[in-house]
Amino acid sequence: MSELKLTPRSEDYSKWYNQVIMRAQLADYAPVRGCMVIRPSGYALWENIQQALDRRFKAAAVENAYFPLLIPKSFLEKEKEHVEGFSPELAVVTIGGGEVLDEPLVVRPTSETILGHMWANWIKSYRDLPMRLNLWNNVVRWELRTRLFLRTLEFLWQEGHCAYSSAAEAEAETIQMLNVYTDFAVNDAAIPVIPGRKSESEKFAGAVRSYTIEAMMGDKKALQSGTSHFLGQNFAKAFDIKFLSKDNQLEHAWTTSWGLSTRMIGGIIMVHGDDQGLKLPPKLAPIQAVIIPIFKNDAEKSKVIPVIDQLRQQLAETVRVKVDDREETPGFKFNDWEMRGVPLRIEVGPKDVEKGTVVFARRDVPGREGKSFVPQAGIVEAARSALVTIQSDLLKRATEFRDAHTHEPKSYAEFKAVVEDSFARVWWCGDRQCEADIKEETKATTRCIPLEQPGGSGMCVHCGKPAQEVAIFAKAY
Amino acid sequence: MSELKLTPRSEDYSKWYNQVIMRAQLADYAPVRGCMVIRPSGYALWENIQQALDRRFKAAAVENAYFPLLIPKSFLEKEKEHVEGFSPELAVVTIGGGEVLDEPLVVRPTSETILGHMWANWIKSYRDLPMRLNLWNNVVRWELRTRLFLRTLEFLWQEGHCAYSSAAEAEAETIQMLNVYTDFAVNDAAIPVIPGRKSESEKFAGAVRSYTIEAMMGDKKALQSGTSHFLGQNFAKAFDIKFLSKDNQLEHAWTTSWGLSTRMIGGIIMVHGDDQGLKLPPKLAPIQAVIIPIFKNDAEKSKVIPVIDQLRQQLAETVRVKVDDREETPGFKFNDWEMRGVPLRIEVGPKDVEKGTVVFARRDVPGREGKSFVPQAGIVEAARSALVTIQSDLLKRATEFRDAHTHEPKSYAEFKAVVEDSFARVWWCGDRQCEADIKEETKATTRCIPLEQPGGSGMCVHCGKPAQEVAIFAKAY
């Protein structure tokens, strides 16, 4: 399929996005509305995301666990804001083993409530705290408008849940995990996210404060790419999670939760992809380099293949490399691997064999400029170094793109024009009604109040009231 | 909790089993009947099982993917035997987003049907075959009698699904994956399983032939620990999975499926555990060695701790090691880590520091006999070698136990006595009614018809008819 040209992004971004996913075989539509099948190329990418995060979680003394899929419906109703936030989105099991259930069970939309229930049993003393858990699992939210990876009825994610004996520790950890997400997004996914606080109206149902990392996509819309919530004592009170403090007082625990999902794959597609297809950051690419044999006849083939075998073996120790030995033309293979976003293509033909060289072609630099002759002798080091360069160039380009499309309008009129097609970074009063008015008038929402603030104060871009903080406004996925 | 003594296995095996799980904190009961929470110690063990299998799957050219949780109910009804097998066990979502659904959705009990649906789209030509997929996911089966790890409403597993262009290839792969399970069970879990074929009445709903690995637990009951099914063209016909063959003929594909679940953790507990608790095989143990500092006062502590720091660092490169620096007595710690099944305990006290030694204590060899003095200088090699010995001794002991409790009764009277408390290895006619009668009369079922057969023929132990094969009968979980 991948020999077909994609619809250019400039023509129809959304169509381009779906075509990339289908042709790079990342995913496919499932028979149930809004659900998806993640195909091997997409799942291998998710596995690399998992590993990159899991390593960071373990370094932060977080332990993995598994909590059940099915939650008594009454649990969801225990925390007032939580139930309001999630009720419209629930999938409910009412029949089990052929019988109508006494109490309906909810397919988890998130696990705060079941964690709360178990923690009430497990946490007795300050010595049981902190408790730091992470769950890799699937959740279901009955979304009306769905899109592959970005918003699906079922999605894969990790949800971290921690309990602490003090508010300060809990909120510090909320920020710590946001920093883990930022570090992962910037350094592994090559996505220059903006870490910040969510506004009151955008925060998680049941949180005291929500934090987010926000990224700019190729169409200049924002994607919320990971969130970290300080839940205060809200869930501890709803589920009676109490511990005996060092001073022998019975206190409610302070809890947090934080999550990042397969939505990140949508972000990677939209931040880096181009009209030739996917462009994967080397650190996450399941295949980092693909070797394409070039030959016209059997005589040439017999020269080329043994050299390729040897090069592959050398490379395999440090690079995730694949040889494409399919019976297709080199041109077909070039297009196919470009579509699939493999960062580095290595071409080996009979002339290369004679000269002891190979051709490197960078996925991120089109045409002649991205090509170079590399001596076979130093191929491992050259490939490693090319991948490092590609990784940092992807980040550099995405950062430049974001910065070129982030403006600081000085008036509301200017603001309205900016958010049509850019991020607006503006003083904002923080008022819920003011935010609602802006959304109504422009379709732009507060993406976050960045952690990094200029200091001082200003006038709200919309209502003119005094503003203490700068916020990012944009249209969003 | 773990300082409390367990109920001895000889007194109440089932109680012992549950206590081990709770006290070693492998899992806990969830609020929904029959569901469980897998706690970090249990989940880390599962992660190691996953890695050990995943490595083998990838070596067999199987790719991971993800298929949706929710399946249209009508899909389950397409394959006649499949629907009969699974209908009584389904959890059904009837409400989504507050509305009653037009078509109820089933929470997957297994994914043959949804694979079938997608494959019908993806598989067009012999060039698309073989297709080898594996899914790591959760499934729900509405079981009436449940038991932690062994049989839960929801469980974690992997389900492999492959499609081939010929029956021979498909059945060869069914056996190949059974061999993967056997290799994993024997060499990583130290469980001497018996690979074999399931009888007609015990096979998977929808399979032509089912294969299994069967293990003997500490109470001499059998545990089906992994299964591999040759599905023939049953699902291909039900879902219209057709491909154009090399000869340009439209043919139905031949499919297989194979699965191994968190049930394996129950097997590990019951094969190796003793009255002191869990006994983990080193290859799968999340913590392979625990270092316990021994000191009576601060002066001794200040001698011991720096040495331990250094030893931990050296060991960490090749051994999964943990230092227990909790403020508890050494005696408490010894019991606690015995309960949790850590294979090797390393004690370091002031005298050890003076002599440049440490004490090794093997979990699998109780008392003085399992203890040895080891020079600090060679600790890494000594630990590695001790773990190898423990691994192979666990397998040896489990094999001896199984063989000592596997008999070949010559009469049905003898058979009845044997299956009370052992495995019976007997000539069996293969008749469905004969099998049903034996089950009715003894509660023993055919566990498998071992792949390894003595050859020749005999007389059925029950009905006396001619028998071509030997089968294993036992009571089972």
Question: What does this entry look like structurally?
Answer:
2 copies of one chain form a homodimer. Chain A is an alpha+beta fold. Chain A folds into 3 domains: about 15-270, BirA Bifunctional Protein, domain 2; about 290-385, Rossmann fold, CATH 3.40.50.800; about 405-475, 2-Layer Sandwich (Translation Initiation Factor IF3), CATH 3.30.110.30. Helices cover about 35% and strands about 25% of the residues of chain A. The first copy, chain A, is built from 14 helices and 25 strands. In chain A, the strands form 6 sheets. An 11-stranded mixed sheet of chain A has the order 3-7-8-14-11-10-9-22-25-21-20. In chain A, strands 16-15-17-18-19 form a 5-stranded mixed sheet, sandwiched between helices. The first copy, chain A, has a 3-stranded antiparallel sheet with strand order 4-6-5. In chain A, a hairpin with a 5-residue loop joins strand 12 (about 240-245) and strand 13 (about 250). The longest helix of chain A has 26 residues, at about 380-405. At the A-B interface, strand 2, helix 2, strand 3, strand 4 and strand 5 of A face strand 2, helix 2, strand 3, strand 4 and strand 5 of B. Strand 5 of chain A pairs antiparallel with strand 5 (about 90-95) of chain B.
Give the largest chain-chain interface (CB within 8 Å): A-B, 55 and 54 residues
Helical content class of chain A: 25-40%
Name the structural class of chain A: alpha+beta
- The rounded Rg of chain A comes to 25 Å
Strand numbers in spatial order across the main sheet of chain A: 3-7-8-14-11-10-9-22-25-21-20
Mean pLDDT of chain A: 97
The stretches of 5 or more residues of chain A where confidence is low (pLDDT under 50) are none
Q: Give me the CATH fold name of the largest domain in chain A.
A: BirA Bifunctional Protein, domain 2
Strand content of chain A: 25-35%
Under CATH at level 1, the class of the largest domain in chain A stands as Alpha Beta
Examine the secondary-structure arrangement and name the CATH architecture of the largest domain in chain A. Answer: 2-Layer Sandwich
CATH superfamily of the largest domain in chain A: Bira Bifunctional Protein, Domain 2
The biggest beta sheet of chain A, please?
11 strands, mixed
